[in-house]
Amino acid sequence: MPVVPLSPKEIEDRLAELHGWSVDADRLTRAYRLASHFAATAMVVHIARVQEELDHHSDLTLGYNTVTLTVNTHSVGGAITELDFQLAHRVEDLAPGHGAT
Asked: In what order do the strands lie in the sheet with 22-24?
């Protein structure tokens, strides 16, 4: 099945299922605050593994005790697609305590 951009309504509906995620400048985004720098670094490694499994990659920013993801689908002109939401759900599954900033 080809990857296609989601409509604004589809994006809104899918965001309702993802606590802490939002759209900023046509990108799906989320920030996590963790207990320590080590925990944040470990989360980045786990996210990288998931991204490799999905063959879909976000921009990751590692701060002292924060991890921020932003993602869209470059192959459809930088739009938000179902692939972005698949990645977001997988990240939510591995996030400790789902601590958003």
From this structure: 22-24, 27-33, 66-71, 59-62
Q: What is the pLDDT of residues 29-62, one digit of tens each?
A: 999 999 999 999 999 999 999 999 999 999 999 9
Q: Are 72 and 24 in contact (CB under 8 A)?
A: no
Q: What is the pLDDT of residue 96?
A: 76
Q: Which two tokens stand for residue 37?
A: 């720098």
List CB contacts of 5: < 8 A, sequence separation 6 or more.
73, 76, 77, 79, 80, 81
Cα–Cα–Cα angle for 92, 76, 25, nearest 5°?
60
Which candidate, 89, 17, 31, places its Cα nearest to that of 63? 31
Tokens of 68: 């921020």
* Beta carbons within 8 Å of 54's beta carbon, 6+ residues apart: 83, 86, 87, 90
